[in-house]
Amino acid sequence: MDKEFATEYPRNEDGLILFPRDSDYRKELFPLLKLDEHPAKANIYLVQAIVEYVSQ
Hints:
Elements: H1 23-29, H2 44-54
């Protein structure tokens, strides 16, 4: 596989991907949910990058 993962996002000096905070995007996608009630959430930008990486 020749493609790279999440190339549109910056990386730190250790090569870790710096995904942006997704709180505003999450509120836009799920306006009727009380998102603050459950703190454990996967970053939507990370999930989207994974889906794009493994999809054709």
